[in-house]
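User: structure tokens for this one?
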Amino acid sequence: MPNAVKTIGLDPGSGSPSGSLGGNAVKIYEVGSGSQPQNVLSNPDFSNGSASWNAGSSWSIAVGSAILDVTTAAGAGRNLTQTGVLKLGESYQVSVTVSGNVITSVGTVSLLANGVSLSPAFSSGSGTGTASGTFTAVSQDFVLSYSRMLAVGAGSNLTISKIEVYIQS
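Assistant:
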């Protein structure tokens, strides 16, 4: 059943319901099957700093963002994780809002969600936009990491301001 939307206008004189919307309209959304999808992540915009996140050594989290130092060559330090948020076998759509700077003459940096490359990859001078893609959960944990092609220069980083993960319908 799709969302039912009811709009109620209030008569400014009496305060009782009326058919006109005026400036006092209230929309009521009936939640049920077919409702807006919910982000499966807690604290997806880092508004509570590192709450709900497990960050590897390549990450620093402050209120409002997570900063990824993409100069780390390899290892678990690349991972930003939330545990127990996914359902095994479900397909998910992910979108990551990114700003920052990648310093390289020939390389690229790709964000990965549960091991799947998101698009686009970021190259020299870039690092602003939205990286997105889909993956199927093989674990209950959501893991954001990165890979890089060739070397990147000192000071290369990506700032993540929001991560959205929805069950793909």
